[in-house]
Design brief:
The structure is a single chain. It is built from ten helices and two strands. The chain has about 210 residues and is mainly α. The chain has one domain: Hypothetical protein af1432 (Orthogonal Bundle), CATH 1.10.3210. It has a two-stranded antiparallel ribbon. A hairpin with a 5-residue loop joins strand 1 and strand 2. Helix 3 packs across helix 7. The N and C termini lie far apart (about 45 Å).
Length: about 210
Amino acid sequence: METAKKLTDFFTISERLECEQRLAKLSDGSKQTVASHSWNMSIMAITLQPYLTKSVDITRVLKLCILHDLPESIAHDIPLHEQTDAIKKQKHIQEHQAIDKITNLLQDDEIQDLFDEYELRQTPESKLVKLLDILDTCVQHMCAKDLSYVGTYKNNFYWKLFFSDSFADAFDYDPILHKVYNEIRNRVANRLQNELGINTEQFIQGDTNENI
């Protein structure tokens, strides 16, 4: 009975990811939730896995996809453009406190281990999941009903990041990831030109010095 109570208490926490909204918008104009972000990463992991040149444990990849943002059920999501050094430091503390709370509740160290693995990004699985995390945002740039909102933050912060050399170079981790990113990038560029009259050449100016 005690185990059932702890699991049920945890489920009331994990459910919040279905309510926690991200900055990204979907094809119907609504905001993406953290839960749907994690779900789409999992779908991408399954479909990309046969084309990867690097060998990964797909079960562990899926666990990392599903759990990587679990702390946000307590600590909440903070958009990248709002993350100053001080906010990043506080975010790091709050997320670790959230994972500690969840681990203590479940008395299961696996969630802690998976979160630490994702944070350190030393394993092939965690490196891949971080790129899927980024790639899902790219998908939302491609699919959003109206792209005009993306350019309203910090003088086109997100477009400068998305079209930067450093952003593209991250996907060199595996050829299929780079090919998919390039396809998405081209489609986004076409949408910006056709729908908003924006020439994306203005954004391609090298490294933005942002931590992606």
